[in-house]
Amino acid sequence: MYPFFFDPTMIIIIPALLIAVYAQYKVKSTFNQYSEIYSDSGLTGAEAARKIMQNKNITGVNIKKTSGNLTDHYDPKNRVLNLSQDVYSSSSIAAIGVAAHEAGHALQDAESYKPLAMRASLVPAANLGSSLGLPMAIFGFFIRADFLILTGFVLFSAAFLFHLVTLPVEFNASNRAIAQLQTNSYLSSEEIKGAKKVLRAAAFTYVAATLVALANLLRILLLFGLGRD
Asked: Which residue ranges does UniProt annotate as crossing the membrane (predicted)?
């Protein structure tokens, strides 16, 4: 029997956590690098996002400035495109790239992109699973309760599914962003390269988050196996 404070499955999660830490470092360093390089067009992030939506005849989406760093996100429920302070009013390559990516989500919403709707529907279950799934499984392991471990597995599966569905949503939004920036010449060909690096770094964080979720799901399965030994 293991000591109460010792989780023998932690070895599974450590590599994924290291990748996640590196992904966060990479996105911040890449964003900071291209935040200091300004586009020739002079468009701010908010202006670029607005033009992209106008080109696709999308109306009724508000663009708001939100606090924090890299807190940019699109809210499909309220149809609000939230841009952080460093993106909203900046004309840097990084700002335009990130704003275009968020506008890409608005384009997805307008076209009823199924993975976006699926991700939105998974949010409540994913929040519940991510907060309760793993702790419940670990507690079940230490008190030898298979039912709790399996319940934790089911709950956390929703969180993993959310991360899995997020991948095509984010990659598709970035592809839409780059296509719009190129087609409408909001960035030059050389500037596009920088925007792609920023968006690739951001996409890496979603891949890393999915790997962490997968590792935790495998941990729960291992806890079940160890608990039955």
From this structure: 6-25, 122-143, 149-169, 203-226
Q: Is there a domain that residue 1 lies in?
A: no
Stretch 16-42: mean pLDDT:
96
CA distance from start to end of the chain:
10
Residue 2 has pLDDT above 50, yes or no: no
**pLDDT-based confidence at 93, cuts 50/70/90?**
very high
Q: Model confidence at 122, in pLDDT bands (50, 70, 90)?
A: very high
Catalytic residue among 47, 102, 170, 191: 102
Distance CA 42, CA 59 (A): 24
2 in a domain, yes or no? no
Tell how strand 80-84 and strand 73-75 pair up.
antiparallel
Does the annotation count 190 as an active-site position? no
5-28 pLDDT tens trace:
456 667 888 999 999 999 999 999
Mention every residue, 6+ apart, whose C-beta is less than 8 A from residue 217: 153, 156, 157, 160
Helix (H) or strand (E) holding 147, with range, is helix 146-183
Whether residue 200 is contained in a domain is answered as yes
Q: What is the DSSP letter of 112?
A: T
Question: How many C-beta atoms surround the C-beta of residue 106 within 10 A?
Answer: 26
Give the CA count within 13 Å in the CB-facing half-sphere of 187.
34
